[in-house]
């Protein structure tokens, strides 16, 4: 399972990026444009203009549950490409492994993808060579700010999810409508709150501040100037006083809820489902939330690019993409999967797969960089980068 904890050292390439133009997009729509109009200086890596014969293998770094033997064997039978999988536990591990040059593909999340693009570790993708990337891919996962740069796509969507407010309905008897029960010091559930243990969680505080302290001027939770970052850290330190425990291991969070240590806190919908207990419920509060979106990314100097393209196409088919989504517990990227069976439709309904109104409230993880991705003039203001977020996070828990 994923922990997605980032190391500060891997941010060196990202921290110096400069913004020449920014996607406007809808300020309420996940904060991430959708038209690929983010302009930043990145290495000029050529895009493949055609495919050749498949090689004999493809080497993939993936989250647990994304590349399983049944799919790999079928893929090998169809293409002749043997799949060599390495499971990674964090985004930082994925970045480090991709930089060894030993891997062709990675299932990167938004908190890693921009680092890989900025570092010249991945190449832009020719979508014409991936037939299954078509009209059935949900619009909300196309052309996003975390993997579409200078009009070029670097990622093939896999799935997405929101970081929701989960609660024990036997303790929290009235459904929460706001994140205030998890952030304010006078919460009736003080001492029973769980929070995510990673620097990217600073964005969750920023989402709350966007709604409750609009005078701070936060327009995007991943674009914080020093004053805005300080306000988010102050809120996190306040929350620290009511937190029972921080989690990065999903299994540990399930144990915490099941054992009664935790009454409510930030979670993934799949974790509630895994408890297999009706008393655990979840809600997307009125302020919105952060979230995550994963995509296949191709190494800049992939040793097996033809097999890699073949895998991205294969894994984007309704059946395989849906199987990955069901196996991990997330909304699939290919909406056609939802129509393949009653079970598939139930899964899609549970994870809001085609409900774009739901995801307009979700700000997908995006690596913070010094240029403000909310459109502020870089000549007038500098935003904080992930190194600063990492340093700030270390002060939160004392």
Outline the secondary-structure elements.
Blueprint: H1 12-15, E1 19-21, E2 39-40, E3 57-62, H2 69-79, E4 82-87, H3 91-98, E5 105-109, H4 110-118, E6 148-149, E7 152-153, E8 156-168, H5 180-183, E9 193-196, H6 202-212, H7 226-240, E10 243-247, H8 250-258, E11 264-268, H9 269-275, E12 280-283, E13 289-298, H10 305-315, H11 318-328, E14 331-332, H12 342-350, H13 356-359, E15 362-364, H14 386-396
Helix pairs in contact: 3-4, 6-7, 7-14, 8-9
Notes on the structure:
By secondary structure, the protein is an alpha/beta fold. The chain folds into 2 domains: 8-160 and 293-364, 3-Layer(aba) Sandwich (D-Maltodextrin-Binding Protein, domain 2); 162-290, 3-Layer(aba) Sandwich (D-Maltodextrin-Binding Protein, domain 2), CATH 3.40.190.10. The chain is built from 14 helices and 15 strands. It has helices at residues 12-15, 69-79, 91-98, 110-118, 180-183, 202-212, 226-240, 250-258, 269-275, 305-315, 318-328, 342-350, 356-359, 386-396; strands at 19-21, 39-40, 57-62, 82-87, 105-109, 148-149, 152-153, 156-168, 193-196, 243-247, 264-268, 280-283, 289-298, 331-332, 362-364. Strands 3, 4, 5, 8, 9, 10, 11, 12, 13, 14 and 15 form an 11-stranded mixed β-sheet that branches. Helix 3 runs parallel beside helix 4 (110-118) and helix 8 (250-258) packs across helix 9 (269-275).
């Amino acid at each position: 399972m994923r922990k997605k904890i980032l190391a500060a050292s891997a941010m060196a390439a990202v921290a110096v990026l400069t913004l020449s133009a920014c996607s406007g997009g809808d300020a309420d729509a996940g904060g991430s444009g959708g038209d690929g109009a983010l302009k930043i200086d990145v290495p000029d890596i050529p895009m493949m203009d055609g495919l050749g014969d498949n090689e004999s293998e493809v080497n993939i770094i993936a989250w647990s549950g994304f590349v399983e033997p049944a799919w790999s064997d079928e893929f090998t039978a169809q293409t002749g490409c043997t799949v060599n999988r390495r499971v990674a536990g964090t985004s930082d591990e994925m970045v480090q492994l991709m930089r060894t040059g030993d891997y062709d593909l990675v299932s990167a999340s938004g908190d890693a993808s921009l680092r890989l693009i900025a570092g010249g570790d991945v190449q832009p993708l020719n979508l014409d060579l991936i037939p299954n990337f078509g009209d059935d891919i949900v619009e909300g996962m196309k052309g996003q700010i975390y993997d579409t740069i200078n009009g070029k796509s670097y990622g093939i969507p896999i799935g997405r999810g929101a970081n929701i407010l989960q609660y024990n309905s036997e303790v929290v008897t009235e459904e929460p409508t706001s994140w205030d029960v998890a952030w304010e010091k006078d919460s009736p559930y003080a001492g029973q709150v769980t929070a995510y243990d990673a620097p990217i969680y600073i964005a969750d505080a920023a989402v709350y501040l966007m709604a409750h302290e609009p005078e701070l001027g936060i327009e995007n939770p991943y674009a914080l100037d020093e004053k805005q970052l300080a306000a988010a850290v102050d809120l996190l330190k306040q929350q620290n006083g009511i937190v029972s425990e921080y989690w990065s291991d999903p299994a540990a969070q399930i144990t915490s809820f099941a054992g009664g240590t935790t009454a409510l806190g930030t979670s993934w919908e799949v974790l509630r489902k895994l408890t297999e207990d009706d008393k655990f419920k979840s809600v997307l509060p009125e302020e919105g939330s952060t979230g995550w979106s994963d995509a296949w990314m191709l190494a800049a100097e992939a040793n097996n690019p033809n097999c890699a393209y073949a895998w991205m196409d294969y894994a984007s088919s309704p059946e395989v993409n849906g199987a990955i989504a069901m196996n991990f517990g997330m909304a699939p990227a290919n909406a056609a999967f939802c129509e393949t069976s009653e079970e598939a439709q139930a899964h899609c309904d549970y994870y809001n797969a085609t409900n774009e109104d739901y995801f307009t409230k979700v700000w997908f993880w995006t690596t913070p960089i010094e240029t403000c991705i909310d459109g502020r003039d870089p000549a007038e203001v500098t935003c904080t980068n992930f190194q600063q977020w990492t340093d700030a996070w270390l002060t939160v828990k004392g």
